[in-house]
Amino acid sequence: MDLDTRLRFDNLVVGAGNRVAATAAQAVAVRPGAVHNPLFIHGATGLGKTHLLCAVAQLAATLQPQLAVEYLALYELVGQLLATASDVPSEDFWRPYERAGLLLVDDVQFVAGRRELQGELLELFERVQAAGGQVVMASDVPPAEIPDLDDRLSSLFSRGLVAEVTASAKEASILRAPKRPTGEFEDFLSEVTTVVQEQVESWQVRLREAIAYWNAEGYRTAVLERALTLGRAPDMAGLLATFSAAVEHLRDLERSVGGIDPAQRADPVFRDPERMAAAEDLAERALGGDAPPPGPDAAFTRAAFEMGTSNQLAAHMADAVIASPGVKCNPLLIHGAGGVGKTHLLNAIGNALLQAHDGRLVVACVPARQFIDEMHGAVQGGTIDRWRARYRAVDALLIDDVQFVDWTERAQEEFFLLFNDLVGAGKQVVVTSDQPSAAIPDLEARLSARFEGGLVVPIQAPDRALREKLFARFLAAAGYEFGAPLLALLGQQPMQSVRDIAGFVNRLAAAASAAGVPLDASLVRRELGALLPYAGMPHISQESEARDPAFMDPEKVVLDWPDVSARVIEEFR
Questions:
Q1: Can you give 294-320 as a three-state secondary structure string?
Q2: Calpha distance 451→551 (Å, rounded)
Q3: Residues with Cβ < 8 Å from 273, sequence gap 6 or more?
């Protein structure tokens, strides 16, 4: 589907119902990848969500003509999958979207119940963001109301901004016909175009077209750009044929490496024909089993992991693992609901191990689904021995979200053998799950027993003190000043996860920016009233946090006594 060029910000009617979404969309268009990434816009049909997507594309393309913009309509994709009886599209289908600098995804609600498609989209979004690209999505319903939504996708949505378009913005899609230049100005533009066309050599035009095409495909074109500076025409046919052949070779290398380690497909050497030797060396090492597995995400550090009573046991056990890997708490199983910090703590363990040993350790930190997908790919490709050697060479194996794995008999057998080899060799194993191992469906008793043979620690929903710390951290990161009373008000709200807190801070920041008001207690109370229900939060009184009924007796809570003099009478009896 082509984007409608008539749908722009200058003909978008902004009202109370869409002001936050419109402000955030314009900020994204001006600085794609730098703010509100991803931006998730939701609202009923006909309220202007597609108008906002198109407006973002038009403004971003105007400000950055070289920006690769891609639009993906999920309702069309799901229709094609139903017609072909497929669960996911082919690998080649995703390739143009992976290289987008601005990825627009419409009708996200159609992913409901399609777990495999959700996994593919999660990988797509992460690759676009890792390359500095912006993701903007639209849906008829908020993430919390999409049935059977993968926790990891929900977590990704909450890292950016979730903005609602309500019925009061129903007139936001009024179109005004674009004006065409007329008279002397139109004649002037025509004359300028003619002069430019006469002055530019045809070979330069052809070369610029090739540069634009390969840039849009995500490849560096420095060699072609240098050819533009030549005083005379080069051998155009030979130059372009050689460049095309180099790109095809890079693609072949990228595919071969991706079959062993999907994470390495994002390596920039596969996008630069002038780094062919480095790409071939990387592929040779990967195919030979020398390339290490993916490591921890450097963004998650132990110092940035805030502690409270709800997670301090898990944090202390993580510190014990960092101090003595493979000796204490081996294996370590960390379990808790989605968004409470398991992934952060897992990656923080990996980063701390690397730092403590000056990078000499080989630390693998991978999502369980990717880990098992690699194993299945190795089985099908006849490279299972390389896969085994690759993971048996690590000093620490950190596996995230084991509950998402389709635990086939072969997968459990391979993981059981790897687990035994690593633990037996004194190498550290840490896994995370949203539930204790005994509750994971289809997990064999022997593997569950291995998980529980070390130490099993929970992470609970953030307690009040931890909520205040997290609100302080996220508000400071967003550049807002705050005092103890504001933190106390925010800390009263029993949010169930770190992602809920981050999402609410993003919501507050966007609301403050759109309304041009400070982020204060008044704004917080107003947004709490407008937000509920949000991300599964229960209704919350603005007066105080729910208290234990045992302490509501007027004989125990002095401040709640209607008559203070009764206390004096009681004391003298």
A1: CCCCCCCCCCCCCCCCCCHHHHHHHHH
A2: 41
A3: 219, 220, 223, 243, 246, 247, 250
Write down the pLDDT at residue 549.
Answer: 45
pLDDT score, position 400: 92
156 touches 124 (CB < 8 A): no
- The residue behind tokens 């190498």 is 427
- Residues 421, 423: Cα–Cα separation, whole Å: 6
Q: CB burial class (10 A; 0-12, 13-18, 19+) of residue 524?
A: buried
Q: Looking only at Cα atoms, what is the longest distance across the chain?
A: 109
Q: What is the pLDDT of residue 517?
A: 86
**Strand order across the beta sheet in which 363-367 lies:** 363-367, 396-400, 428-433, 332-335, 455-458
Token representation of residue 525: 């109370």
Rounded to an integer, what is the distance from CA 379 to the centroid of its chain?
29
Averaged over successive runs of 10 residues, the pLDDT of the chain (573 residues) comes to: 77 84 88 89 88 91 88 84 75 86 91 87 90 92 88 85 74 38 51 46 76 82 88 83 90 78 76 90 68 85 90 92 88 90 93 88 90 85 80 90 80 86 91 85 79 86 90 88 87 86 88 86 79 42 43 43 45 43
Q: Quick one: CA torsion of 398, 153, 164, 526, rounded to 10 degrees?
A: -30
Terminal-residue alpha carbon distance, the chain: 83
DSSP 439: G
- Residue whose tokens read 């603005």: 542
